[in-house]
Amino acid sequence: RAMAESAVSVLIGAFRGQKSEQRIFPTTLRIRSSCGCYKTPSAA
How far apart are CA 36 and CA 13, in angstroms? Predict the structure, then answer.
């Protein structure tokens, strides 16, 4: 929610001619074991 509120604030400020400051938001890296592709059975 904080990121969305900040984005709207920056957008409104841009329309008013204001410069935006750099903002850093905490993130979490999530490594997934699948890209969504299905594994095919190995040929035996």
Answer: 40
CB atoms within 10 A of CB 30: 5
DSSP string, 1-44: -HHHHHHHHHHHHHHTTPPPPP----------S--SPPPPPPP-
Instruction: Give the pLDDT confidence of 7-32 residue by residue, as tens digits.
Output: 999 999 999 999 988 888 888 988 77
Residue with tokens 């929610």: 1
Whole-prediction pTM: 0.50
Give the span between the Cα atoms of 9 and 3, in whole angstroms. 10
